[in-house]
Amino acid sequence: MMGATGPTAYDCSGLVQAAFRTIGVDLPRVSEDQSTAGTQVSLDALQPGDILYWGGAGSAYHVAVYVGGGNFIGAQNPSSGVVERPLSYSQPTGAVRVA
């Protein structure tokens, strides 16, 4: 749900922001800024907790969190809600690792 920041509904960047807040990490609110909030990492070197983004760094239109095993969790759309999907479902453009 566009603009939703929880706890009963999230958009993609609101979910990522809320997840990181639970571990004491403050992230920017929107996808564009989250896509540059850490160190860029190769999609071949992903680790659980990396933020995946779709679109360009600084102009991303979607974000999710890599959870390992080739899967990510994200708020996809209002009808599917928060889901876990394989990377093959929708290949991200890039990833950042937040220290």
UniProtKB/TrEMBL annotation:
UniProt cross-references to InterPro entries, sorted A to Z: NLP_P60_dom, Papain-like_cys_pep_sf, PG_Endopeptidase_C40
Superkingdom as given in the UniProt entry: Bacteria
Residue span, NlpC/P60 domain: 1-99
GO biological process: proteolysis
Pfam families, per database record: NLPC_P60
Keyword terms, alphabetized: Hydrolase, Protease, Thiol protease
Single GO molecular function: cysteine-type peptidase activity
Family: Belongs to the peptidase C40 family.
Protein name: NLP/P60-family protein
